[in-house]
Amino acid sequence: MAVGQVGAPLLDGAALRADFPVFERPTASGRPLAYLDSAASSQKPRAVIEALADAYGHHYANVHRGIYELSVDADSRYEAARTAVARFIGASSPREVVFVRNATEALNLVAASWGGANLGPGDLVLSTEMEHHANLVPWQQVARGTGAGLEYVAITDDGRLDLHDLRARLARGPKLLALAHVSNSLGTINPVAEITRMAHEAGALVVLDAAQSVPHMPVDVTALGVDFAALSGHKMLGPSGIGALWGRRELLDAMPPFLTGGSMITRVTLEGAEWNEVPWKFEAGTPAIAEAMGLAAAIDYLQSIGMDRVRAHERFLFERAWASLEDMPGVRLLGPASPDEHAGVIGFVVDGIHPHDVATILDSEGIAVRAGHHCAQPVMLRYDLPATTRASFYVYNDLDDVERLVDGIRTTQQVFGTA
Ligand code: PLP
């Protein structure tokens, strides 16, 4: 979509902000909140907050247990939320969607369950240098526990996955490739369909960390061809405490449980237990019931905008921000310059000023950004940086936020005398 060329954002950020009560909150700066930290966690529209209150107020009971009216109501709404997630990500069946707490838990589930059952000495797992710790540490743990090898696909100087390196490593016959769809520290959008084709040709399964893509662009796991995908509700306007793992049915069927206890069994004796069918086999204990209903409301809200429009809006803001910042003396930007390969997440460094100081000065102007290693310490090491500052966009941002960010960085340079 040629939104960037027509000179106006596709969405009316100011009008959308009216749906989010947080923007009624004054900031100490006296200026409205410019929230540029949605990659860490998004704000919540009134529709989600009300759905959560309605769930707790009128539809709450434990699920999968009761035979009384209220429990049946809660159960059907919880399962309807599963169907909503399945449709939203293009899954062929809700039975392939497992509710978990967040993307981290989803990735741990695959690593521990699939990895524990399928990996051993001599096997190889590939991850990449651009992963969030959530898609690194679980693989390190399972490699340690099973004796499998773990290697990382290199990244280029401009923050792309090095596809030559990927090809060379795939030639060694890894059993699995775990990668991010969108890097939370670099903003890179990886060519997942192409990478998945390459991985499958080499006989490797693909685990997609979709935590930064599903909230911001159309994602169809079936079209992408991946085998597993992980997402977090709190990054897509939904409540915290709810996320999802999608996996191919035959893979989930063959995997052992992750956590054990109530709900995930069909029969228990003192000698042993038989597992429930998927997805319930992976949902031990009482799940995040109301939060699942809140997530369904978030999906409704996003669908009412349209994911193509969400992506086009963020792309427009990215293009404007990048164009302003790339020419600014003393500012270095991370990740690919092309808007086709870069999501609405911009990591940057301001020469001579620590990212925490940049974020502190921006905060004094009412601008919320993230500073630190962004749970991607290997990325910081790769570019020899202690930390970066990161601005990330969502539906409620507009050009005014971009201008305030750019002005705020200028002010920071003046305060530190580096301008
Ligand atoms: N993967 C990526 C790319 C992320 O950006 C994040 C969070 O920032 C995660 C995984 C982990 O998400 P959560 O903390 O919701 O489990």
Condensed summary:
The chain has 419 residues and is of the alpha/beta class. Helix content is 40%, strand content 15%. A seven-stranded mixed β-sheet has the order 2-8-7-6-5-3-4, with helices on both faces. A four-stranded antiparallel β-sheet has the order 11-12-15-14, covered by helices on one side.
How would you describe the overall organization of this protein?
The N terminus is likely disordered. The chain folds into 2 domains: 139 residues, Alpha-Beta Complex (Aspartate Aminotransferase, domain 1); 255 residues, Type I PLP-dependent aspartate aminotransferase-like (Major domain) (Aspartate Aminotransferase, domain 2, 3-Layer(aba) Sandwich). The strands form 4 sheets. The protein has a 7-stranded mixed beta sheet with strand order 2-8-7-6-5-3-4, with helices on both faces. A 4-stranded antiparallel beta sheet has the order 11-12-15-14, covered by helices on one side. The protein has a two-stranded parallel sheet with strand order 1-13. Helix 4 crosses helix 11. With 419 residues, the protein is an alpha/beta fold. The longest helix is centred in the first third of the chain and has 20 residues. It contains 15 helices and 15 strands. Bound molecules: pyridoxal-5'-phosphate. Pyridoxal-5'-phosphate binds next to helix 5.
